[in-house]
Amino acid sequence: MQVRHLSLSDFRNYSVAELELGAGPNLFVGSNGQGKTNLVEALGYLSTLGSHRVSSDQALIRMGQQAAIIRARLEHAGREVLVEVQINRSEANRAQVNRSVTKIREIPRFFSSVLFAPEDLALVRGDPSGRRRFIDQLLFARSPRLAGVATDYDRVLRQRNTLLKSARNSGVKANQLSTLEIWDDRLVVLGSELIAERDALVFQLRPYIEKAYLAVAGSDHSPKISSRLSILSLSSTSSSDDELDDQPGASAERLGSPFRRADVEIQFRTALADLRRQELDRGITLCGPHRDDLLFELNGLPAKGYASHGESWSFALAVKLASADLLRTDSALGDPVVILDDVFAELDKARRARLAAAVADYEQVLITAAVFGDVPEQLTAHTVHISAGTIVSEPADA
């Protein structure tokens, strides 16, 4: 998979941008705040329908405008496809493929990318919500149908929480909530599919993470990833409405074989029954995929809280490189486009060289940097300079 041409209209600080891209590495260089990250953010949006920097689409539309347009000409196996997304300020977003209107949720089927940015350090050091978002984005990239399952689950979860809050406020007894059992069933069916699919994906990622960590760090610190499932915990003492405790023992870790869906459903129903009193007291759903987490370990210890800054960076990089490696093995689109947004400035010289070697054989790699010298020489052949929302130069062989 390659991006041959990127066109932007009223996206971030670009009124208009036209950019030809080549195979292999493409480097965007510019001082901070000039717009280089905006270019890769636009491409990342096409594969995830979201930004890696902000949660709202509104920030992507240039000040004073009502819509932003991202248009990309993609190539795979000698065939080209034109995809377009219009991000609207006051109405639903729109999408086209080869000039034909399509549902916007279909766009990621045509473009696969893996983006790593400084914000991804939060995968190791941040809250569970970021790790859930990571595993879901990878899950949906491999099986787009599951994005619809997740949307349905979120809808049922909101309705169930509304019922729980209403029951708490009115003092209704647990045995009088026959309606709750209907929502329980839908929650279990949808949630169990997500939990089982996530857990299976975690197992598939493990050897790729081990390989990627060694490639980036240059040493083996026994990196490990496992699932922390809220349905395996018989109580929830967390004060947050959607997070597990960070304390050891707050939830069970999945280390054996992947959890079969039928077993997940049984455990999910058991957990809901065990937590019913707490849920009515708090007015929220206390178990399910919306409260699960991933555990990252190095040398047998949780990376969060124990890993050094360099080790945390290496683990975060390894997780993203492992994702790209997994996608390239089973995607009909071939290699995902690898995007490294302002990453090299955070790495020492040795890690820079190892990262450059790790991505060298991908069909296309997009890199942003504020300082040209931070990027290893083998990644600088096609360099684009960015200044104040203007593309100053393009790759020499474009």
Question: Can you offer a commentary on this structure?
Answer:
The chain has 398 residues and is of the alpha+beta class. It has 2 domains: 2-112 and 336-393, P-loop containing nucleotide triphosphate hydrolases (Rossmann fold), CATH 3.40.50.300; 128-305, RecF/RecN/SMC, N-terminal domain (Glutathione S-transferase Yfyf (Class Pi), Chain A, domain 2, Up-down Bundle), CATH 1.20.1050. The chain is 39% helix and 23% strand. It is built from 9 helices and 16 strands. The protein has helices spanning 36-48, 122-125, 128-142, 145-170, 178-217, 261-282, 303-306, 309-330, 349-359, and strands at 2-11, 14-20, 24-29, 67-76, 79-88, 94-97, 100-102, 113-116, 224-229, 252-254, 293-298, 301-302, 337-341, 364-369, 383-387, 390-393. Strands 2-1-4-5-6-7 form a 6-stranded antiparallel β-sheet, with helices on one face. A 6-stranded mixed β-sheet has the order 8-13-14-3-15-16, with helices on both faces. A 4-stranded antiparallel β-sheet has the order 10-9-11-12. The chain starts with a strand and ends in a 5-residue tail after the last strand. Mean pLDDT is 90; it is low at 235-239 and 245-251. Residues 3-369 form the RecF/RecN/SMC N-terminal domain. Belongs to the RecF family. The RecF protein is involved in DNA metabolism; it is required for DNA replication and normal SOS inducibility. RecF binds preferentially to single-stranded, linear DNA. It also seems to bind ATP.
